[in-house]
Automatic annotation (TrEMBL):
Keywords: DNA-binding, Transcription, Transcription regulation. It comes from Noviherbaspirillum album. It comes from the Bacteria. InterPro entries: Sig_transdc_resp-reg_C-effctor, Tscrpt_reg_LuxR_C, WH-like_DNA-bd_sf. Signal peptide: none annotated. Residues 304-369 form the HTH luxR-type domain. This is Helix-turn-helix transcriptional regulator.
Length: 377
């Protein structure tokens, strides 16, 4: 490996911090660090304290074959793995091609079969982070069997080490945060119902795999220039999204669309249950859209009415019975309540749903019934 131009500690520090958000930059940062340390190779190793050995996470100067051989076998023989992780943070340990451990059989195998084979003359390694779930070490290597390190060669890293420690901790935290996000993404991609997240201006922020397939058909719903829209009742749906994605949203809504196919298309527009970026300067409330293509078929929708509009159990039951065509007297008789009490419940239903006419209430419940139907067209 040719020597890289010498760089300043500030350049190395800046690259390591950038690597916390862009892992591809770790290799560039290690290349700069190797140059700073007058070295030709550099390795960042991460280890789980509960497991034996360590793995090369990022490196410069080594082929994939060498990295694989180390991670799969030689890491258990590396004498530095048994010393550096238990030393003080920032304390450098030098290994001049095995001279520090001449009497250890494993060390001799490691140095003879790996280091000397690849013409590595010396290694300088230091512990960077030691926590309950992470041990991180960094090392630099000089190629050429006679090219070892002096006792003061580690001094060039003094300015970099505290920042490298912070950068690795930040990187580890970022990786931890991505785990639940990745799990959620994978779970949503397994859901058969198309699901989208939009902001109040209908800008698309997320679509699961089923939604991507539906959008590719351009049947009933589309995304143009990054904005979600529907081919029918566009204004109605836009208003529902704006309402659901408002800071004060407390309920969702259901909508039926003309999809242009034999199947009926129905949308549930729901407020997101939590703020995704409470401290972000550009925070925008969002709405969740769940799409169903089903045949129209009545089924129990009481739970949805209670969830979407906060109806009581009695109010949801009365609304469903009214949508099924029962008269007010029939409902009152079946529920063993007076007409006056029934009218009080109905007044509350219309108030909570924001509807004014029985026909509109029936249409909304029909939409919910279709969404919850298990039959396929």
């Amino acid at each position: 490996m040719d020597k890289s131009p010498r760089v300043s500690p500030d350049q190395v520090i800046s690259t390591f911090y950038d690597a916390t958000l862009n892992p591809a930059l770790w290799q560039f940062g290690l290349n700069q660090f190797a140059s700073l340390m007058d070295s030709q190779g550099s390795i960042l190793m991460l280890a789980d304290p509960s497991r034996a050995g360590a793995e090369i996470a990022f490196n410069v100067g080594y082929s994939e074959e060498v990295v694989s051989a180390y991670n799969e076998y030689y890491n258990t023989l590396d004498p530095l793995v048994g010393v550096v992780p238990y030393s003080e943070v920032g304390c450098w340990t030098a290994d001049a091609n095995g001279k520090a451990w001449p009497d250890q059989n494993n060390a001799r195998e490691y140095h003879n079969d790996l280091l000397r084979k690849h013409d590595i003359g010396g290694i300088l390694a230091s512990l960077v982070v030691r926590e309950d779930r992470l041990v991180a070490t960094i090392s630099v290597q000089r190629f050429g069997l006679q090219n070892s390190y002096r006792d003061d060669d580690h001094l060039a890293a003094r300015e970099v080490m505290p920042h490298l420690q912070r950068a690795i901790k930040l990187y580890f935290r970022m990786q931890e945060l991505q785990i639940p996000a990745g799990i959620a993404q994978a779970a949503l991609d397994h859901v058969t119902a198309p699901m989208l997240v939009v902001d109040g201006s209908c800008n698309l922020r997320f679509a699961n795999r089923a939604a991507e397939r539906l959008l590719s058909r351009q049947c009933g719903v589309v995304v143009r220039f990054g904005r979600f829209s529907t081919r029918s009742r566009a204004l109605e749906v836009q208003q529902a999204i704006a309402q659901a994605a408002s800071a004060t949203a407390s309920r969702g809504s259901a909508h039926s669309l003309d999809s242009g196919s034999n199947a009926a298309m129905h949308l549930l527009v729901l407020p997101m249950p939590l703020k995704l970026a409470a401290s972000h300067f550009n925070e925008r409330p969002m709405a969740l859209i769940v799409i169903h293509e089903t045949c129209r078929s009545y089924t129990s929708v009481e739970s949805s009415l209670r969830s979407l509009y906060h109806l009581t159990a009695m109010e949801a039951r009365i609304a469903c019975m009214l949508a099924d065509g029962l008269s007010t007297q029939e409902i009152a008789d079946e529920q063993s309540i007076s007409i006056l009490t029934l009218r009080t419940h109905l007044k509350s239903v219309f108030s909570k749903t924001g509807l004014r006419r029985q026909a509109a209430l029936t249409q909304m419940i029909t939409t919910l019934a279709s969404i919850h139907s298990s039959s396929e067209c």
